[in-house]
Amino acid sequence: MKLLLCIALLLLAAQLSESACFFQRHDKRAKGKPKAPLGCIDKSDGTAHHIGESWKNANCLNCVCSSNGYECCEMYSTPTSFPKGCNVLFDREACEFRVHVESDPSVECPVLER
User: Fold this and answer.
1) Contact 98, 91 (CB under 8 A)
2) In this structure, are residues 39 and 48 in contact, taking their beta carbons and an 8 Å threshold?
């Protein structure tokens, strides 16, 4: 039940922020038989996670492990409209885009649309 609630909340948050998501199925054995799922291995950073676990991976994605595989969604939205003379930089530590004045990176610009 907790897993379903977590997945529902993750999907709702993804729809509200218009994030991109993907689903990664568990690997199958060479003979075509499904591997008994013990958890998920995040292909982006090689970390292992238990079924029902959620995590933030090295690529700023929120992920949830299920018995079929894992789903990951972007944690950030991309600015699409901002004033001229501003630059966009991705802050990997904060997992967000920062929009700043081109001539002075310490001054933030308003984001008009994401």
Assistant:
1) yes
2) yes
